[in-house]
Description:
The protein contains 19 helices and 36 strands. The termini are far apart. By secondary structure, the protein is of the alpha+beta class. α11 crosses α18 and α18 (736-749) runs antiparallel to α19 (755-773). The strands form nine sheets. The chain has a six-stranded mixed sheet with strand order 27-26-28-34-29-32. Strands 14, 15, 16, 17 and 18 form a five-stranded antiparallel sheet that branches.
Amino acid sequence: MKKLVALTAVCYLLFMFLSITVTGAEAQSTEVFTQAQFKSAQGSSDPRARQIVMLGDTLYAYLDDASVYSWHISESTPRLFCQLPELPQSTSTAYCNLQSDAKAQWDQSVSFLVTGENALWGVNVFTGMIGKMSAEGIQWRDVPLDATQFMPDGHPWPLRVVNAFVSSSTLYVYIAMDNGEYPQNNYQMLAFDMTSGTCSVLDIKNAQGICVYKPGTILLLYPRGESIWSVDEMDLSTGTISASVFQTFSSAGDKPIGGLAYHPVSEHLLFTFQSQVWGATEGEAYAPMAFVPVPDIEGETIAFALKDGRYALFSGCLYVRNLEALSTVPDTLRIEGCVDQTIYDSFSRENPNIPVDISDHLLSADEIAQALVNGDQTADLYATFADHTFRAIVKKGYAADLSSSSILSTDILSMYPTIQHVITDDAGNPVAYPYTLLLDHWQVNETLWLQIFGDRPVPTTYDQFMDAMISWESTYADEYPEINFSEDFDHAYWVRKIINAYAQQYGKPGSPVTINSPELRSVLGKLEQVRNIRNNNGRNIDFMSDGEFMAYPDIFITAGFNNVLLDPVDPSSQMTIESSDDLGEGIYTDMAALVFEEGEQSLIPGQMIVWFVNPYSQHKDLAIQYLECAAQMNNNPRTYYATHPDINKPLEREGYEASVQEMEKRRDELQEALKGAEGAERSSIEENLTDVENELANQEKRKWAISEKAITNYRPFASSISFFEDNPYITPDGSSMLHQLEGLYRRYAHGLASLDDFLKELDEKMRMLYLEGE
């Protein structure tokens, strides 16, 4: 009996494979309409496909430079089909408020392509014009469509067209409202009579995706409760929706399926979910049939069932895949914590048949440690902050040794010693690889400071900072109501910030920190004065709600981490405030970290997110291969420069040359148009020309992704950045101790504990942290 079942399964898989491979047995999996192909065809320009449509055996890509490329499914590369009117640059100005010449450009452009009834069409959503396309371009028809539905009242620009097709002299347009919460959205279906131009709305009940089905019908994708997706059928002539013959599909979590396509010969419904193409016929269970390097997808994503049996998914480029029933599914690499498209694409190119499941939820090292204690194998590769808890993970052997990779071992040896210390174990073996390096930065707007505090020195200690805050609250806050001292005020938040800074400054392994010190008492006492002044003057002492807080300019920015290797600000660029209208002006410059006693050395606090391999993973080799892709400089250049002291050649911004050429072309066109222009039209062209020339004049500043000035500014302090991996007092987000400390900060801030009681309880909790860390 078992042999009979096995034989039946093999026969079914063989039938499934044969039935879907209709023609073209030699057709190959490939990528089409790639940037590399366009760049090869056009030289230095770097256009991207904005839309792809299919007509018979040919697919057409509409690029953002208004060119259209065609690809016949029997060919290896696309070729230029035609050039359409130039697409204007996007602007924040509403369409109705544009100058007449700017409007005319939008009115003459092709907004989207559509196919049907053996023709390729172009549509303009501003005027409703529609016309057939050929190698010569577009020939507009005399009867426009009713374009009002494309841009309803209150919308400054037309709604986004996701998909469209022509059937029975009707243009059907699937439109995204873009007002839903990911992973779902809100959608409409418009139906235009192409003879009269009139428009009606079909009730698709907010289908999250569509595809053409049998003549006169489409399939609609719906979420049905948690993790369940179903496909219904709509009769376009009546608008009736009914259950389809296809089964429901169970996905993982809240991740949607997408890329629906129906193959009329094999009668397969196809879609993509988590890097796998799935397929089924009427009533059958879905089976994986191919792999595409697209881990995250939306229901609306466009796909095509090609006549030769292949499936093609549009996500950046067109991924064309042969389909076959897979009797065994390859191992899936599961990554928890960070999504990096460039690194993922690099890995997928080298491992095209390995599905990758990536969660962008960044767990704390504390949360990961709790899972690893129990031998959890859910994730093969983790990303987390390299803090003291991560150091404990390493010490306990919960981060796999990466020494088997000569690529990683050699690369890590060329990093700063401080970085190496974070990502190696006590024996010097590599156990992690950097993903992102950030700097904790305070900034001051010296223009505002000088205007308000005169020649008073900018604070360098926490005592001085609190003195300035007291002066602000008691003397200046009412005089400057449209300025904030430092963002929204929350007493508990500032208590936490000061305690963290104190722990960073004085916390060291092997020596308990002294909490009840005169320096800390003084700062907290002055912070109480700030709270009392604000309370007495009717100002908030807790964070305001989103609707209450007004985001006015700040004298100090004291929250958040920033990227490294940014261009330093030129102090000469600071402005002088001459009127109240200039109060928002001025440039924020970085400050050295405040200290608690004058003369102390300022720390350079940093944070680093690292990847490490789960020692219990069954796919360690794949995880290490992924890290080897992360270790390629071009895949993550900012982090690579930040961690490698010998990489000092400035890095040009990708697409810079193409951007300059595009601006120069636009300048030449405007100069030519100016020759015959008069009156208001001339003024408008002159204004646009000035903007373009200013853009060109500033292009050199935008040339570098990482400039020589940024590298020169960063190198002197890079080796001194502190990550506090050996500091037992730095509690990670998500930890149970942090939760306890937050409760203590709140009780103290709300007057439920005196300063003495607060410091006593804080000292007890800090000693617990110290003992746990030891």
